[in-house]
Every structure is written in structure tokens, then in C-alpha cells.
């Protein structure tokens, strides 16, 4: 599901791509905040079966018609150009998100992109944040428990991360217009490094709040930076197949991220060794 909106935004926007991704990402953060509350209210008021049917009906009668009637793959299919600007598409693609991108006539196929070092470097850069973030999310209650912090503190941190991520995702759209994407990725990896270090010393609620705020900043930057980098480097024409590989790497990173945390804790009865080992990933791949 995430592949579809990421591809649509990349197709419909060039100069305004960062801002468009920022607005799109608001939906992700907002749903993370709102839907659990709505679901809880529906289940408490009626039952989980009613909540299940409620969302099923909304999907069928609201989401599906909107998708069928309101969504088009490319602006060219309805006689428009990206960003709603008249003129040659190639002339628009001079400097986007602080990163020079290919002209419209130089769009790379997936096969061509896979022959470049940049493709594999970006792919690894997509996987690392997914791995680190999912590992932390799945084990944050246990990590906090070893630091003598409660499960409630962990829940507050998760909510704080989402709250901070909402304005940060908007700010990120403007940041990507001023800062080259490779520098933005470097900042993301440095923040990931700091986050892992903070987990080693977060032993009070104030440090936990600071961790949640920094985590939200990192997530806001990641969601925009990692989305715009593919079309910025390889163009729009074949972005669906290229994005597909990127999403696959993100899913793999998310799937395997919690595993070393769990295995490390089982072996050492502490998260310190695995956190120290995980530090090597953002530190090493920041060079890429």
C-alpha cells in the first residue's frame, strides 16, 4: 500500500515533490495518533466485530470510489504536467530537492539503475533506518524496563514520537528543497547513532522525553528524504519498479530488525551489546 502513494507523488510532482511528500506523510502520522483511539472507542462502545465491519464498510463505499474516480497514474494521462506548470517537463527538472536529477529523456529503467553504485548505496540506506526503528519499537518496553523505566513511559515516548513527527514531516519538505538528499541521509544516520547511544543512558523520564522528541525528528526526516531520493536520482518514468525494490528493502529491514535485539538479550541478558553492535550500521553506512 505504501508503494502506491509514494509512486503517485513522484509522478505528479517535481519541483514541489518534497512538500507533496510532507503533506502525504501527515496522513501516516495522523492515522497513528487517531485510529487507535477511534478503534478503542468502537470496541468499548460496541465490540471488535462492529469495529471490523465499520472500517470494512468505509473502505468499500468511500475509499474504493475515491481511488477509482479521483486517482490517475500520471498527470500526462489527463493532459497535465507535473506541478501543474505549463511548459517542457525537462526544463522543470534542473534542480530538485537540492539534488540534481535526470532530465525527463534520461529516466533510468530498473535494470539500468541496478548497474549503478548509487542504487545499491541508497537501497542499503533505506534498509538501515527501517531495521533500527522497528527493532527499537518492538523492544522499547523491555529496553526501558532494563533501565528501570515503566511501560507507561515507553507508551508516552511512542506517542511523543508521532506528535513530533507531524510538524517535522512538514519541515522536512522545505529542508529537502535546500539540502542535498545525500547530506540529509547523513544527518539521518547521525541521529540514528545518537538515538542508539541515548538508549544506553536513558534512565529517567526526562531523558525518555528527549529520546522521543529526537526520534520524532528522525522519523520526519526519514519519511521524506527516503521517499524523494529515488525519483531524484532515477527519474519518473520507471519509478514504480524502482520504488518497489526500495519498499521491499524497507520491509525486509523492518522484518529482521527486532531479531538481533531479541537474540542479543537472550544471550547477554542485556541490550547493551546489541545496541553497541547496531551503532556500527548507521556509523558505517553514513560514508555511503
Structure explained in plain terms:
The structure is a single chain. The protein has one domain (3-285): MFS general substrate transporter like domains (Growth Hormone, Chain: A), CATH 1.20.1250. Helix content is 77%, strand content 0%. The protein is built from 13 helices and no strands. It has helices at residues 3-12, 17-45, 48-70, 89-92, 110-113, 117-146, 151-178, 181-201, 205-234, 239-256, 258-268, 272-278, 280-285. Helix 6 packs antiparallel against helix 7 (151-178) and helix 6 runs parallel beside helix 8 (181-201). The longest helix is centred in the middle third of the chain and has 30 residues, at 117-146. The chain is globular.
